[in-house]
Amino acid sequence: MSRGTSPSFTPELFSYMRDLKRHNDRDWFLANKARYERAVRAPALQFIADFEPHLRKISKEFLAIARPVGGSLFRIQRDIRFSKDKSPYKDHVGIRFLHKDAKNVHAPVFYLHLQPKGSFAGFGVWHPEPPALAKIRQAIVDDSSGFRKVVDAAAFRKRFNRDGDSLKRPPRGFDPEHPLVEELKRKDHVGACPLTDKDIVAAGFDRRLAQIFQAAIPFQRYLCRALGVGF
Description:
By secondary structure, this protein is an alpha+beta fold. The chain is built from ten helices and four strands.
C-alpha cells in the first residue's frame, strides 16, 4: 500500500551504506542482512511502488516494477568477473525505471542513485550500442534546432548537469565543422540533478523526484524519437 508523501527512506539507509563500504565482505553482509532488508531493500521497493503513479503521469512508456529480483531495483552485489576491484557489494543503491521496449532496443531510462553525499536523479542513454548512438547523432544533425531548443533551455541548463564520455575527435561520417560537433562527439546522452541526503529522506521526495523527471521530458522525448520508441 502506498504511503503517500511519507518518506520511504530514513537516515539509516545512508548509515548502512557507509558501514557497508567500510566492511565490504560477505561475512559482514550476511551478519547484517536483516539491517539491509530493513534499511535498504524494503524502503526501496516501497518507494518504487509509491512512485509508479507519478511515473505514469510522466510517461506510460516507462515502468516502475517493485520486485526484489528482476524489477526496478538493482542488485546490491557487484559483478566482479572482469574487475580489478573484488569488493563484492556496491557502495550505492540504484533504481531504474526502464522503457517498456528496453528488452528489444536501447532506450532511454530514468534513474535514481542513492549514495551518502553522492545521490542524484538521472535520465537519458548511457553507453548506447553503436547503432543506437548513430541514430541519436543523425537526429541531432537532422534536427539541430530542435535539439538546441531542448538542451539550451534556461530551466534545463540550470537544473541539470550533462556528463558522460566523449570522443576526442568527431565521429566518422559526420561533419567536423558541424556547429553541434561537441554533441556529436558524445558517447553518452545523459543528464543528472544532484540530491542531498536530506532530500532523499524528506517527506514528499516522490513528488520532488517526479518534478525533476518532468523537467527532463523534452530531452527524453527527443531521444525516444531518435531511437524510434514511444514516449
